[in-house]
Every structure is written in structure tokens, then in C-alpha cells.
Amino acid sequence: MKALVTANFSPEGLARLRKHMEVVYDPWGAKNEILMSDEMAEKLKAAGADVVILEADLCHEEVFETVELKMIGCCRGDPLNVDVETATAKGIPVFYTPGRNADAVADLTLAFMLCLARKIVPVALMMAQGKYNPEDPADYMRMLKEMTGFELGSKTVGLVGFGAIGRKVAARLAGFGAKVIAYDPFVKKEVFDAAKVESVSLEAVFKRGDIVSIHVAVTDDTEGLINRKYLELMKPTAYFVNTARAELVDCDALVELLKAKKIAGAAVDVFRSEPPQKDDPFLNLDNVLATPHIGGATGQVVEHQSDMIVADMEAYLGGKRPKHIANPEVLEKGKS
Fold it and tell me: Are residues 307 and 255 in the same domain?
């Protein structure tokens, strides 16, 4: 076998993979180039590869018509850039990496919460710009009042979604002593109980949360889930955090409420157009902390996805059941 790896992959992962097959490593991140399906087909054909491990590139019908693949690895939480249906019909297993960036996103979420709670960014900017210059004790007390924040342990944090990322956020918040409530109709009560998190309705998350944080995947059912009705339930002192996807939220309503100070502030790592345009309204509000979709931008995420894909390929080659396979029915076909 020969693998073409266009995903960002760790040296350790490549070394493990080379124990089982020849490897051509040509990561998309090195060139910032995403291959369309016809380009991927030609690249696989030129390399003589029958295994592909990708991350951002597309793997649709052109690939399957051109190359007889034996395995596909997709370094994403959802292999939406792979035609899993066609792969299944051809008996090709598709391995993927759910939760590969859960720790990274959970860390950024907590960083956002702390920045909002302690007004770190505006205060740091004030210092850097030379605007912190109290002239007397009274002036100092006035400025101190403007910089006064709150402790996470004194607040209720509401999570929308209690999957891999939501649970890691809750675990981090436990160390601060915050009260955590969460909405997720697909998670069993015992999971909430084990995490010491209160399971509540979506409405309750927005009504009760001093900070509301979103941790939901975009599907036909969740697109636009956080609409104006829920946003208007938030306290005027509450903060909104989105490290998930912009498509989950009525962004126009959120901007309107932030402008009117009906919500104290927000932190967003995701935008309707990415990279965000200069005129994106979130970039022009003084009560919004914005970052350019860096939730998964850690070196450890590459290590995680590499380990997960190689481990599943090793399991499959060794006749064992892979942990993360998008089309497990292929395994049953192989037994018949």
C-alpha cells in the first residue's frame, strides 16, 4: 500500500504509518492550498497511492472513478468533505477524528470567559496606549471601577451542547467553582450527573446564564438554532461566547443586541464569512472580543489527529475494530 497524506500530520504519526505502507507527505497547510476532488484524483493517480489521509481537501466521485482506494483517513470531527456514501458502496473504510480539537477549543473558550470576566483586553490596550494615567486617588478609584470585573466562581455558565467540547469546558469551569448548566437533548441524564452539570432547557440556558457558550455542530436541525427569541432572554449583564459556528446563530440579532448594550458583550472565533471581512460588524463593536477561527490552532491538535488516524488504520489492518469509523457497515461486509 501507498498513502498520500495531505493532512497536517505529526512526524511521529508519519513514522508509525511508514511501518505499514509507503508514504508521500504533501500537507495542505504548507502551501495553503485546498485540492478540489478532480485535483485530488490526479494527485493520487500521479503518486500511485491507494490510501489517502486528508483534512481540508475534497474526496468525491472524481476520486473514486480514478483510483481504487483501500482506506480513507479524514482529519476532521465530521468527514463532510468525503463522499462517505460512495466509499461505503465500494467497501472503503473512512476513518475520522471526532474530538481531535476538543481540548484546544475548550481552552480558548475558557480564555474568552476569563478575558470577558476580567476585562483583560480593554485594560491591556489602555495600558499599552498610555491611557492609564490617574492624576490623583479619586481618578485612580474612578478608573479602577471601570476595570472591575467578576470571578467565574460567582457566576452561572450556560452551555448549549454537551458533547466532547462542552464536557471539557464544564470540567475546566469546575476548577473555578462556577455553576454550570447545559442544554443537550441527545445526552443522557447520568452524563450530566457525573459531570455535576444541571441539564436544563435551551430557554433556561439563556435566561439563567451569566455567560452562554455554544458547542454544537452545524446540521440541518441546528442551523439558526440560536435565534432572536433566545438571545433576547439574556440578562443585560450577560456575555455570549461562540467558538462553534456562526451559522448556529442569528448574527444580525446578536449584533443589534450588542450595539444596544442589551447584552454586556461577546467573544467570537467564528464568522459567516471567513476570513472575516474588515466591515464585519463584530469587528467594529467595543464590547466584542474577536479572533479569526483559531480554536483548533494548536500543535497538539495535529498530534491528536495523527494519532487517531494511524491507530484506527493499524487496528483495521490488524483485524481489530477501529474506534472512529464513519461507515462501520464496511466492517460487517468484510466479515461476510
Answer: no
